Amino acid sequence: MKTTKDKCALCATRLSWIGLWDSFIIAIFKGIIGILTHSRALQASALYSFHDVVSSIAVIIGLKVSSQPIDEEHPYGHGNVEYIVSVFTSFIILAATIYLFVDSLGIVLKAKHIPAHWAALVAGLISCFANEVIYRYNICAVKHLNSPAILTHAKHHRADAISSLAVVIAILGSKMGFYFLDPLVAVFEAGHLTFLSIEILYHSSAGLLDKSAGKEEVSLIRKITSQISGIKKIRNIKTRQIGRNIWVDLYVSLSGKKTVDEAHKISGRIRQDLMKEIKYLGNINVVFE
Fold this sequence. Notes:
CATH class of the largest domain: Mainly Alpha
CATH superfamily of the largest domain: Cation efflux protein transmembrane domain
Helix content: over 70%
Number of domains: 2
Largest sheet: 3 strands, mixed
CATH architecture of the largest domain: Up-down Bundle
CATH topology of the largest domain: Alpha-lytic protease prodomain-like
């Protein structure tokens, strides 16, 4: 019988495929409409969708590789591949952003504005709705899997939804005579893409450098361990985030003299209690000092 986690993993894989084809179709749709209607904002939004295509492919690869079991060459598993995937996709956003920003800013400064067509408005509305729906499903999967790759993927779809909404506003403004709004929105979209990519790049790089778990998780580990009979003192707690899982090195002192068998039972109790209360624990290494 499949657990909730297994069902969510399957759902996440399906969402990646759905997101892939959805983003691909929308990217082509917005790109063609954007070029035909001369809407820079819609062309910029198409870049968001194109990036979602790359992101979907990256998530599919990341989920497949990171779920592989531990082996001799990878004693800590394959979880960091999700961070590598996130870094890769972030660089793609940055490259697209630089081109988009320079091109759109040039149009704003030269004041060469062309009125947008109603078709661009319809394309923006369709894209906004589709991406928001996929974003919400991805966030649901993140809550159960704690996957950085899926979270990155979800953020991309939310960014695409926001950019599509901005396109709608720009087209409406253009119809009211504010023709500069279309390229101006494209400039702001480039800025938003830059912020998003730098944020993802920062968190992904921190993961690759074995960033520790949050203070809340460490405090909870300390609280649970200190309540176990036989524990005299917790000397140190070291954690590292490897993909979606947290690995823990726990250094403790025992009260009184304990046999090897007693120490082994305490170690097992520590693992059992921590695994019960904390999600996404990959491994717990208990060291008695």
